[in-house]
Amino acid sequence: MMSAGEQEKLSYNIISKSFELPDSIRGVNLQNNKLKDVGEMFRGKQKLTELDFLWNPLISIAPNAFDDLCALTQLTFGGNDDGKAQIRSFPSGLFQKCGKNLFEMTIQNTHWQRIEDHSFHGVSESVSLDLSQNLIQSVGKDAFAGITSLIYLDLSDNNLQYLPDNLLKGQTNLLALLFQRNPIKTITANVFADLTSLRSLHMYVNPIEVIENEALQHLRENSTIHCISDSLAVPIEVPDKLKDAFSHDGFDCDNEHDGIFQCRACPVGTYGNRVHHGCVNCPAGKKW
């Protein structure tokens, strides 16, 4: 933990332009200010490890803004109570020079609309990326290429139409993937193909119509899939190893063919339970 002398807290100071910091500074909290642009204000701050821009109306970031921050491990961006930060994109190569030690990154509540290929080039050792609550509509299939240690990825509460097939290629360490509350209709067969360590998959509140054959077969047997059956428009195909879990949690699974089951959401008036497979009638309500 940092001592008071190692961390500078500048929140609520209504900072809107560049400012001076000692070269020895290790943490800077800039929450709740009026920063619109991030330029070269951190030049020479080689010891800085934590930087927080949460709740600022950011519009732009200079491509070399973090070129001297090779010790940086934690970075946070985001809008404020008055609305989303106006920034719509992040410069190519922003982390290329000094991103290796950036283990945790949060970018929330912005106008970011597309994650371009290699947006995180240089962030090879990151373990946590929280990209939720933006306006992201699409993701380049190589957006996360080069990141080898990713454990947690949150893409929830965006405008994603789909997840590209090779988006998560090589992410064998990923434990948690969240993309709930997006307008995703199709889960393709290979999108989870390399997620051999995944334990938690959150995909509820998407208008899912199709989960292609084999999409879930790559997941480990003790994975937890968080989905709300009402958001699934059609039956989904589930491998034998996951059939019991779906049967216990609001689905009726039958019509087995080559180890694949058709699972349908329990109809209104019934529910899934952990004692009996399939759907069970809801108990009668109490008369008042």
From TrEMBL:
<dbReference type="GO" id="GO:0005615">
    <property type="term" value="C:extracellular space"/>
</dbReference>
<dbReference type="InterPro" id="IPR003591">
    <property type="entry name" value="Leu-rich_rpt_typical-subtyp"/>
</dbReference>
<dbReference type="InterPro" id="IPR001611">
    <property type="entry name" value="Leu-rich_rpt"/>
</dbReference>
<keyword id="KW-0677">Repeat</keyword>
<protein>
    <submittedName>
        <fullName>Leucine-rich repeat-containing G-protein coupled receptor 5</fullName>
    </submittedName>
</protein>
<keyword id="KW-0675">Receptor</keyword>
<dbReference type="InterPro" id="IPR032675">
    <property type="entry name" value="LRR_dom_sf"/>
</dbReference>
<keyword id="KW-0433">Leucine-rich repeat</keyword>
<dbReference type="Pfam" id="PF13306">
    <property type="entry name" value="LRR_5"/>
</dbReference>
<dbReference type="InterPro" id="IPR026906">
    <property type="entry name" value="LRR_5"/>
</dbReference>
<dbReference type="InterPro" id="IPR050333">
    <property type="entry name" value="SLRP"/>
</dbReference>
